[in-house]
Amino acid sequence: MLSKRMGNKNGPSNTEALDAEDNCTGLYMFSKKEIKKAISSWKYSKVRVVYRTAGKIYTGILPSGQLVAIKKLKGERMELFHREVDTHCRVRHPNIVSLVGACSGSGRKRYLVYEYCSNGNLVQQLAGSDHVLSWEERVKILRGIALALRFLHSHPDGSIIHTGIKAKNIQLTENMDPKLSNFWSTQVLSRQGIPALAGRPSCVVDIHAFGILALQVLSGTTGDWKSAPGDTIVRMAKEVVRGEREPAEIKDSLLNIGQDDLCDMESILRVAVLCLTETQEGCPTMEEVFEVVNEVWRKMHSRHLHHEISQVAGSPLTPCGSIDDRSN
After folding, report:
1. How far apart are CA 148 and CA 271, in angstroms?
2. Which residues contact 263 (CB under 8 A, 6 or more apart)?
3. Which of 73, 7, 16, 68 lies closest to 41 in space, CA to CA?
4. CATH number, span 28-115
5. What's the CA gap between 162 and 206, in Å, rounded?
6. CA–CA distance, 301 with 285 (Å, rounded to integer)
7. CA-CA distance, 307 to 313, in Å (whole number)?
8. What percent of the chain has pLDDT over 70?
9. Per-residue pLDDT reduced to its tens digit, 136-190
10. For a FRET experiment, which of 36, 119, 125, 129 has its CA 20 to 30 Å from that of 173?
């Protein structure tokens, strides 16, 4: 049974569950009374229910005033409950949604309490929001998720594979900081990079999914990567890499960017296509992917700073150099 401070937690006997650390620092075990009070404290909680694969999500307010997202799981989801808790006990990162606490109690209902991300998920921002993501916000999102995956894949206990990298599993904070969520299908590799159990996926699964995600963010498309729209994005991106199309043809039509940003976009597009390489040998690592996206982020901010300084000094801007093609 899970203890109040997680020091005595007995995980599931199923060998596919991740082993929890002996001391899960900072994770609070809520009572069901506390959970109900948190949900009822949010006056719009009943209309803020979101149906997900793994359960219902409610908005709640803790006694401290902190807004939280509360996921309710039923008995048949117990393995998911343990897997989420076990994974969050070992991973803490600015670009991973924080698990504030959990509630096991008695009966068949279990609850997971997460930090609240006020801008919803990436699908909502790309498809259902009045706000059009700026170029800077899109790069920020891709950089944050690449950073989170680099952290997971290089974890000291062995590479952690999310296996569910997609737009709906990326939550966005008030400042549009991306947070990777939904760790119920996570797998772990040995330190040598060999799957801990036969048949488990490799890091390439996440890298391939990141490539699809990057193309969706660049193009503003939200369809699943297995659908026809996803296939179209991939085909068009490969044609850009081969010089058969212009990068602007894959750009989100709602996004207004200049030539320098278009060059940056092509750099990200090229590494996204590399991520879709079918063989593990030809696929870049998340470290290499992050370097490309981070370089775009750095050059973009360098241009912004240059522009601000030039405006203050009253001097004209000098042309920005071409983007280093890190995908070659």
Report:
1. 17
2. 322, 323
3. 68
4. 3.30.200.20
5. 7
6. 25
7. 10
8. 73
9. 999 999 999 999 999 999 998 889 999 999 999 999 999 999 999 988 888 887 5
10. 36
**Is 122-313 assigned to CATH 1.10.510.10?**
yes
Determine the Cα–Cα distance for residues 145 and 1; give it in Å rounded to an integer.
33
Please identify which residue in the block is written with the tokens 């680099």. 150
Q: Helix, strand or coil for residue 61? A: strand
Pair of tokens at residue 42 = 């949010």
Q: Token pair for residue 53?
A: 């694969």
**Residue for token digits 């490539």?**
211
Distance CA 129, CA 139 (A): 18
Q: Do the domains at 28-115 and 122-313 have one common CATH topology?
A: no
Give residue limits of the domains in the chain: 28-115, 122-313
Which residues, listed in sequence order, are joined to residue 67 by a DSSP beta bridge? 61
How many other C-beta atoms can be found within 10 angstroms of the C-beta atom of residue 222?
19
